[in-house]
Amino acid sequence: MRPTAKLVRSPVRSGTGTLHGIYYEFDLETGVEVTQLTEPGQTSTHADFAWSDVLTWVLVPRNNAGLCVLGMAPYETLDRHSLMQLVYTADKTQDWRAGSVFAVRTRSGEYAKVQLVSDSYNFRWQTYGEPQYLDVQIVLGSTPLALITRYVAECTYESPYGRVICCSGAVGPEGGVLRGRVSDDGVAFPDHVTITIAVDFTPESQLAGIVKTFVQPVMDTGVALLFEPDQVLQVTSLYFDLRPTPFPADYLAVSWRYHGAGGVIASGSKALSGADFGRDSVTQYDIVFQPDPIRSDNLEIEIVGRLQGRDITRFVRAVTLPEPAMVLQSKWDEATQAYGLVSQLDGQA
Fold it and tell me: Which domain of life is it from (predicted)?
């Protein structure tokens, strides 16, 4: 899905106008003169300001709009943020000369700026609409308790007025959802947001904490990101189905090596005793690797040990990643008079 228009109306409207007659009213929200919409002697309910030239020029806000006279202020540099900081009153003003600027908080609470140009009758205006919002949702997937202790996430974006944090928080290994909003700030939505996710692992996993950064586009429906542990971990589970039941003195020594970038990029080992295998009919052992920032191509597994008091045939397999699981079963070989291991990847299990 590609980014599309995110607003049904332009957040910033601008135009020009010309004062005329002895009484003139203007609607800054629609950008039109509204004097002609009223009967003689009446005022428009749509006007934000009125101008009169009966005795002397007078400018006055209408319909609960507010006025702030800025004199010869720099018109171009006034944005919505700066207009919001001003103090608006219902007072009228006679400070009306070429180049003078005044700000208006319209009857509906929008912000506008107006400047008299050239001959003191022509003016230009710009109105900033109320900010609109889109939803931000970050879904953090669950993970085994033995691997991750928590996620910490933050979503930010750059606005015309600086960096904005639209949501942040921490969740446990059970995962969760962080929600926030991104604003157009009365001007335009940002093209993207930056989502930073820190992952803390358990001490038992012996994995160092990592930080991942995602740049997500702001779509017409908002921002959504699904983050799951397999985005930062390569996990291959070994399931051992050993029959007959191992003796207490039996064991398996599992060694593993991750290959990538032309060599071994990670390795480890684990000794599983007969007592480990005696607890359940099927024993699980997870080989966990952090591939970031290195991509691993394959996993080499080597297993030696004893079963039923006999040395088993050495087991060596290279597994193309990703491979989420391998089921290993013991098998008696009459020819060698020894137990060996076979997996579903051999087509023999």
Answer: Bacteria
Res 291 pLDDT > 70: no
Higher pLDDT, residue 143 or 299: 299
* One CATH from 3.30.450, 2.60.40, 2.40.160, 2.115.10 for 133-231: 2.60.40
**Average pLDDT, whole number, for the chain?**
84
What HEC string does the chain produce? Answer: CCCCCCCCCCCEEEEEEECCCCEEEEECCCCEECHHHCCCCCCCCCCCEEEECCCCCEEEECCCCEEEEEECCCCCCCCHHHHHCCCCECCCECCCCCCCEEEEECCCCCEEEEEEECCCCEEEEEEECCCCEEEEEEEECCCCCCCEEEEEEEEEEEECCEEEEEEEEEECCCCEEEEEEEECCCCCCCCEEEEEEEEEECHHHCCCCEEEEEEEECECCEEEEEECHHHCCEEEEEEEECCCCCCCCCEEEEEEEEEECCEEEEEEEEEEEHHHHHCCCCEEEEEEECCCCCCCCEEEEEEEEEECCEECCCEEEEEECCCCEEEEEEEEECCCCEEEEEEHHHCCC
Residue 230 above 60 pLDDT?
yes
